[in-house]
Every structure is written in structure tokens, then in C-alpha cells.
Specification:
globular
């Protein structure tokens, strides 16, 4: 069971790393993957820089935590992904953003997998 959880967590981390790299090297593609459009001017700079950094950071934490069995890294990476869901919900309900239910579900699933993986690794004493 732990091997399956670590594999799922590692794949989520690898996916995040790839999306982060895409934000930096092909931002149009990355925006399209997330159903977004690129902003203009300083908004574009922030969007590309911040989104790339977020995804690369989450990816490194989750992948490293899964491979090296570092429970805290998995939990932090998954927690960051989990924090995106309430941000999306607040954006849609308070600020006129689009409702993005499929993305929120994916973020919640990744968060749940990370928490379960954190727990399983922690129980093993790593």
C-alpha cells in the first residue's frame, strides 16, 4: 500500500514539475492546460513567475518526499496544493471568477493522497 501511495504522490509531483517548467518555457501551453489565458504586462510577469515557482516547488516537495520517504515534504507539498481549492472557491464566490469544479476536485484528491501518504510514511518511522 505504501508503495502505491508513494507512486501516486511521486507522479503528482512529477506532473507539477512539468507544469511548472511549462509555465516558464511555454506559458501559453501551461495556461491552456489550466483553462486560463495569459494576462498582459506585469500581470503576465507575475502569472508566469509565480505559477511556475508554485508548481516547481510543489513538484519538488512531493517528488522528493515520495522518493526519499520524507513525510513532512509530502505533507507540505500536498498542503500547498490543497490550499489552492479554497482560493478558487473564494475567487468564484467573492470576486467574480469562474467556477472550476473539476480543478477543485483534482486539488482535493491530490491533497488527500498526500495526507494519506504522509500518514503511511510517518507510521513507518521515516
Amino acid at each position: 500500500m505504501l508503495t502505491l501511495l508513494r507512486t501516486l504522490t511521486g507522479l503528482a509531483g512529477l506532473g507539477a514539475l512539468l507544469i511548472g517548467a511549462t509555465w516558464w518555457y511555454q506559458p501559453e501551453t501551461a495556461a491552456g492546460l489550466l483553462g486560463a489565458s495569459l494576462l498582459d504586462g506585469t500581470g503576465r510577469t507575475a502569472q508566469i513567475g509565480d505559477s511556475g515557482a508554485f508548481f516547481i516547488g510543489v513538484g519538488v516537495l512531493m517528488l522528493w518526499g515520495a522518493v526519499r520517504q520524507r513525510a513532512l515534504f509530502v505533507l507540505i507539498g500536498g498542503g500547498l496544493v490543497g490550499l489552492v481549492a479554497p482560493g478558487r472557491i473564494l475567487s468564484a464566490t467573492l470576486h467574480g471568477g469562474a467556477v472550476t469544479t473539476p480543478e477543485v476536485v483534482v486539488e482535493c484528491v491530490i491533497f488527500l493522497i498526500a495526507v494519506i501518504t504522509w500518514f503511511a510514511i510517518s507510521r513507518r518511522g521515516h
